Amino acid sequence: MSSNAACAAAVTPAPVAVSNELKERTARRLLKLNPFNGEGQLETFIARFQSISQYLGWSETDRFFHLCASLSGNAGQVLWDIPTDATTKDVFERLRTRFGNDIHVERYRAELHARRRRPNEALQSLYLDIVRLTRLAHPNRDVEIAQHVAREAFINALNDSELQVAVIEKQPATIEEALTIALRLDAYWAALKVLEAPPAEVSKGEVGFLSGQRT
After folding, report:
1. Do residues 54 and 78 touch, judged by C-beta distance below 8 A?
2. Dist. CA 179–CA 129, nearest whole Å
3. What does pTM read for this prediction?
4. What is the pLDDT of residues 147-171, one digit of tens each?
5. Cα–Cα dist 135/146, whole Å
6. How far apart are CA 126 and CA 121, in angstroms?
7. 143-157 and 105-114 are packed helices; what angle lies between their axes, rounded to 10 degrees?
8. Dist. CA 212–CA 208, nearest whole Å
9. Ramachandran region of residue 38, left (φ > 0), alpha (ψ -120 to 50) or beta?
């Protein structure tokens, strides 16, 4: 091999290195971490930060300085007297103490308890709001308990005793199952109003709900 060829080989990055560098440059263009200024949902910001830092393979040092650079306004004030040996976890704890949901939990629980379906509100819209309020009202609950709370809150929020009973009789295990059942029953009722007769093939519970219980 000539000396020129040897020099060229020495300065040419390895294919893997080039691939990783290109991946990171592309990811940095596509994955944008918006600054957090103390407004909006802190947990959403933290979850997005965690996902991006994991995907880009940041070290703890990278994570700390990227996090600090992402804080602005009132949120940036948590950095004013931070110790020199502080970690990403320390910053998260300060943010949660000042801007976290814990200080608003009781308000969110009251909103969840009082939430009712509004006239002409889509069931999907009600479902999404119940899920949101459940997460805010019970931020530290495990998945199974949170699912139970969300399912019960959704059924209570239907604001229609006959529809509630019909959904409960189907024994949904999750809020998603409760939504699916409620959507089916709503569709059957809408069809009944148009056709003025119950569908030919529905389950016993749905026939009871659709036929004779409403005027």
Report:
1. no
2. 12
3. 0.55
4. 999 999 999 999 999 999 999 999 9
5. 8
6. 7
7. 40
8. 7
9. left
Q: Could you identify the residue written with the tokens 């409960």?
A: 168
Q: What angle do CA 55, 132, 74 make, to 5 degrees?
A: 65
CA distance 69 to 207: 60
SS3 readout for 126-145: HHHHHHHHHHHHCCCCCHHH
pLDDT of residue 191: 82
Half-sphere exposure at residue 200, Cβ-oriented, CA atoms within 13 angstroms: 0
Distance of CA 119 to CAs 8, 101, 213, Å? Answer: 72, 29, 20
Q: Which residue has the tokens 């009132």?
A: 74
Q: Residue 184 in contact with residue 208, Cβ under 8 Å?
A: no
Indicate if the pLDDT at residue 16 is higher than 80.
no
| In the chain, beta strands by DSSP E | none
What values do phi and psi take at 175, rounded to 5?
A: -65, -30
For residue 68, give both structure tokens. Answer: 């600090």
Q: Which residue has the tokens 């200024």?
A: 37
DSSP lists the bridge partners of residue 163 as none
Q: If DSSP codes are grouped into helix, strand and coil, which group holds residue 105? A: helix
Could you say which DSSP state residue 118 is in? P
The two three-digit tokens of residue 83, written as one number: 């110790």
Residue burial 184-206, b: 16+ Cβ < 10 Å; e: rest: bbeebbeebeeeeebeeebeebb
Distance CA 207, CA 166 (A): 10
Amino acid at 87: T
Beta carbons of 138 and 149 less than 8 angstroms apart: yes
